[in-house]
Amino acid sequence: MPEHTVTSYDDELNQMTGTILRMGGMVEQQLADAITALVTRDPELAARVIADDQPVDRLEHEIDHLVMRLLALRQPMAVDLRLITASLKISSDLERIGDYAANVAKRASVLSQVEPMRPVAVIPRMSQTVQGMIKDVLDAYMARDAEMALAVWRRDEEVDEIYNSLFRELLTYMMEDPRHITPCTHLLFIAKNIERMGDHATNIAETIAFLVTGTPLDEARPKGDTTPFATAPELPAVSGSEEA
Amino acid sequence: MTMTMASAATETAGGVARNMPPSKMEVSGLDVYYGANQALYDVDMNVAEKRVSALIGPSGCGKSTFIRCLNRMNDIIESCKVSGNVLLDGSDIYARELDVVQLRARVGMVFQKPNPFPKSIYDNVAYGPRIHGLAENAGELDEIVENSLRRAGLFDEEADRMNEPGTSLSGGQQQRLCIARAIAISPEVILMDEPCSALDPIATAKVEELIDELKEDFTIAIVTHNMQQAARVSQYTAFFHLGKLVEFGDTERIFTNPDEKRTQDYITGRFG
Questions:
Q1: Which CATH architecture has domain A8-224?
Q2: Of A39, A81, A194, B50, which sits 20 to 30 A from A115 (CA to CA)?
Q3: Mutate: best of A10, A79, A154, partner B, most B CBs <10 A
């Protein structure tokens, strides 16, 4: 793309995209740290993740301000207009991802005080997929690459599948022993939070596809979370006498 | 999972947009020369009836030349040679037997600089209807003048100054007086060549509001250097560059997602 005749316009656009990328890097790290805090049962690291939410929020405000200034002073058109509105939407998706990471950290800190649970092992795998999505979607934003964004968009299904199977597994644990209910509920919320982060990464992918092509994606997004329709599984047959 | 993107609009060819209302004027294969210099190359473009069509492009791109072909204003320039077809309601306006004065009564024009006659406000507007014999008597003429001034938003402001010279008005009012003068003879098409470039923002807004109202009854083609203005007032936009029509289409699409790279570069301020 050739540069604008007015170079300060380009400077302002670069400042905006740079801030988005910085914000993206921060929430990526926030999520990675939250998961480490969960796995290593480290409440101090969890507390740091929660505190890290503030600088992310500050960057979101900074982007709001930059966007308003660009709209008011430059009267952007066409691809510039799409970049600016896309950045505004992306920043609010990133901010939500940061919130969810902080939430995961809060629950990790609670979980570090109870007996370790086996399903914890699935969480890092799920999170890795979402971290990869966040990273790739930011690369797609930087490169203005619609294909790369679409690849992220498709990966959301994978996350939903992991979430569905984890949901079922946690239900069984809770039914096995009521003492598992508290930690399993926390894990369930953690998984849901990570699943939501994947949804926001998917939103960002859609936004980027529109930014690049100027036309919205015309297919319904992959919707793989079937847990709203899930019922409790049959109880394991160990106790045996419930069914009459 | 298969993924497709909504097919991109392809509506630029030949200066016709999809779902366009009937054309008031149809231009095809238009070439214009000033002496040895070619100013327009094989332009095809339709002007939709009762819509506003904006022509944009850098200085010297041929947009003013194009608009001046629509009521044969280029006839005045001796070295100017025009070839191709320009149809108004399907008939050739360059036909030998055509009366140019009648043509210009049907296709009126408003210029960049307000140019009221050195006459009273009333006589500025009454001039056209008088020479074309549009009023049977003084009462009818009064009515035409009042209606035209009212439509241009001048009547309420200047009702008791009818006999003062048109040149005593402010710049914005003078331009609206020129628009009132243009509509007084009930033209079918109004051509505007940079009508707001000499006006302040408030006067500009008033003229834009007027253009929006006038499209109910008139077909309007406007040349403007102000792209925000083109985006605000028009339904169709044509982008000219180096004498060629580069892209034509719905205004909204041209300004949000143009097909041509040159259009994109121009409207986003990246022009080399």
A1: Up-down Bundle (1.20)
A2: A194
A3: A79
Domain contains B233: yes
Report the amino acid identity of residue B211.
I
Residue B179 has pLDDT above 80, yes or no: yes
In a domain, B149, yes or no: no
Q: In A, which residues are within 8 Å of B272 by CB distance? A: 2
Q: What is the pLDDT of residue A226?
A: 73
CA distance B219 to B217: 7
pLDDT digit string (tens) for B218-237?
999 999 999 999 999 999 99
In Å, how far is B271's CA from the nearest CA of chain A? 7
Domain ranges of chain A: 8-224
Q: What is the extent of the structural domain holding B38?
A: 13-117+189-267
Euclidean distance between CA atoms A241 and B19, whole angstroms: 72
Cβ pairs A/B, distance under 8 A:
63
Put simply, the answer to whether B255 touches A77 (Cβ < 8 Å) is: yes
CA dist., res. A22 & res. B145, Å (int):
64
Cβ–Cβ of A5/B269 closer than 8 Å? yes
Q: Which residues of chain A have a CB within 8 Å of the CB of B247?
A: none
Number of domains chain B contains: 1
Residue B122 lies in a domain: no
What's the CATH code of the domain at B257? 3.40.50.300
**CA–CA dist B167, B171 (Å, integer):** 9
B195, B218, B219: which is closest to B208 by C-alpha?
A: B195
Chain B touched by A71 (CB under 8 Å):
no
Q: What is the ipTM of this complex?
A: 0.73
What is the mean pLDDT for each group of 10 consecutive residues in chain A (244 residues)? 88 96 97 96 97 96 96 92 96 98 96 86 93 97 95 94 94 92 95 97 96 81 67 55 40
Question: HSE of B48 in the Cβ direction (CA atoms, 13 Å)?
Answer: 23
Is the CB of residue B235 less than 8 Å from the CB of residue B48?
yes
User: Could you tell me the pTM of the whole model?
Assistant: 0.80
Report the C-alpha gap between B176 and A109 in whole angstroms: 71
Instruction: List, in sequence order, the alpha helices (H) in chain B.
Output: 63-69, 100-106, 121-131, 138-151, 155-158, 171-184, 201-214, 227-233, 251-256, 261-267
